[in-house]
Amino acid sequence: MNKILITGAAGFIGSNLARALVSEGYEVIGIDNLSTGRLDNLSDLADSPRFAFLESDVSKESFLERPELERVREIFHFASAASPKFYQADPFGTIAVNTSGTRNLLQLALRNGAKMVYASTSEAYGDPLVHPQDEEYRGNVNTWGPRACYDEAKRLGEVYCYEYWKQFGLAVKVARIFNTYSDGLRQDDGRVISNLVTQALGGRDMTIYGDGSQTRSFCFITDTVNGLRRMMDREAANGQIINIGNEKEYTILQVANLVKELTNSPSRITFHPLPQDDPTRRRPSIRKARELLEWEPEVELAEGLRRTIEAYRNRKDA
């Protein structure tokens, strides 16, 4: 059975993927520099003989010298802050992990004859002028603003992946991940689902930035993990960029009202200035994922929110 490396393993998506793979008997190495990831996310794997954790920074070339990496045959590269709150607090680290870090991991894949999935983002489309966004759309990204350190670093990471596929025939695939959620999101990371749920459960004002008419498409974590695993397994995904997300589009105000209803919360919904370059619409086309991966999400937003709310409520009561 293949030895699998997950970077950003102490983060939201990485820890969920690690848990799924270990439960199925895979040998997994998790790497994280713990800048935004938390070891608590991996606490249930601490005693597993099939999981090893390395605290390391993949943007430093020295990490490639670790002997534990010798038999790695699959690489999931998730290392990077993903919330604007955190990537804007460390712009140079965000740029480094998605550029130098991505190149280091591509070198490891080339050295080991491994396959690699690079976690890019729907932010690669910027504030899109085309709806829904398919993988051929080149985006509308501002290179001179507070989100550019993340958006443009991810885009350059994609370029590195393209060159390693084109020049060396490396089996690398790029996943443009749209908003993913569940109770595993950090409650302090500033993203919309975690914000609204924790505020509603606490009876605090529920904050909406802008007038709430901006839209997002939300994908539950189990669906995202399944899509990423199919990308790794399918040869048809080699050398491809593929959207991983849910096609159903909701306004932020719709989401806030749904959370308020599901939590039976007395919280007020309040409105605040929209941050610079915050996209007004976001919705993926997943035609390519259906065709190449035979994948599409299964969990509806209301059901995913119910699971998320229940888990947050139980954590709060513990």
TrEMBL record:
<dbReference type="GO" id="GO:0005737">
    <property type="term" value="C:cytoplasm"/>
</dbReference>
<dbReference type="GO" id="GO:0042732">
    <property type="term" value="P:D-xylose metabolic process"/>
</dbReference>
<keyword id="KW-0812">Transmembrane</keyword>
<keyword id="KW-0325">Glycoprotein</keyword>
<keyword id="KW-0735">Signal-anchor</keyword>
<dbReference type="InterPro" id="IPR036291">
    <property type="entry name" value="NAD(P)-bd_dom_sf"/>
</dbReference>
<feature type="domain" description="NAD-dependent epimerase/dehydratase">
    <location>
        <begin position="4"/>
        <end position="245"/>
    </location>
</feature>
<dbReference type="GO" id="GO:0070403">
    <property type="term" value="F:NAD+ binding"/>
</dbReference>
<keyword id="KW-0520">NAD</keyword>
<dbReference type="InterPro" id="IPR001509">
    <property type="entry name" value="Epimerase_deHydtase"/>
</dbReference>
<protein>
    <submittedName>
        <fullName>NAD-dependent epimerase/dehydratase family protein</fullName>
    </submittedName>
</protein>
<keyword id="KW-0333">Golgi apparatus</keyword>
<keyword id="KW-0210">Decarboxylase</keyword>
<dbReference type="GO" id="GO:0033320">
    <property type="term" value="P:UDP-D-xylose biosynthetic process"/>
</dbReference>
<dbReference type="Pfam" id="PF01370">
    <property type="entry name" value="Epimerase"/>
</dbReference>
<keyword id="KW-0472">Membrane</keyword>
<keyword id="KW-1133">Transmembrane helix</keyword>
<dbReference type="GO" id="GO:0048040">
    <property type="term" value="F:UDP-glucuronate decarboxylase activity"/>
</dbReference>
<dbReference type="InterPro" id="IPR044516">
    <property type="entry name" value="UXS-like"/>
</dbReference>
<keyword id="KW-0456">Lyase</keyword>
